[in-house]
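Good morning,

Attaching, inline, the backbone tokens for the sequence recovery test we're adding to the shared suite. The designed sequence is right after.
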């Protein structure tokens, strides 16, 4: 995402993870995917993201920001996000949650 959008982004994933636990957080991410996806295609497309992102408080994102989000999360190169790609992207966009994940991973290896 463009730096302008990052500066306005408030990261709620760590708080959600703390309050809901791992399973609850994944459930909420799946709910978010359902809101943003194109119901006919079963994936998040640029059009569905643009149309539905305001429902999740993302109305100020530019078309460029939305294209960048799709590109950043699109691992299989199909131009859309499936549920797994969306969940991974949400974790990657949460610096604090990623840091917590790295710490837990390091502790597991020790």
């Amino acid at each position: 995402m463009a730096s302008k959008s990052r500066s306005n982004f408030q990261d709620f994933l760590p708080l959600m993870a703390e309050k809901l636990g791992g399973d609850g957080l994944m459930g909420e991410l799946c709910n978010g995917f359902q809101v943003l996806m194109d119901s006919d295609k079963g994936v998040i497309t640029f059009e569905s993201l643009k149309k539905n992102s305001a429902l999740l408080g993302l109305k100020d994102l530019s078309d460029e920001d939305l294209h960048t989000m799709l590109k950043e999360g699109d691992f299989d190169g199909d131009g859309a996000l499936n549920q797994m790609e969306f969940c991974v992207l949400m974790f990657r966009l949460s610096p604090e949650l990623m840091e917590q994940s790295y710490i837990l991973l390091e502790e597991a290896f020790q």
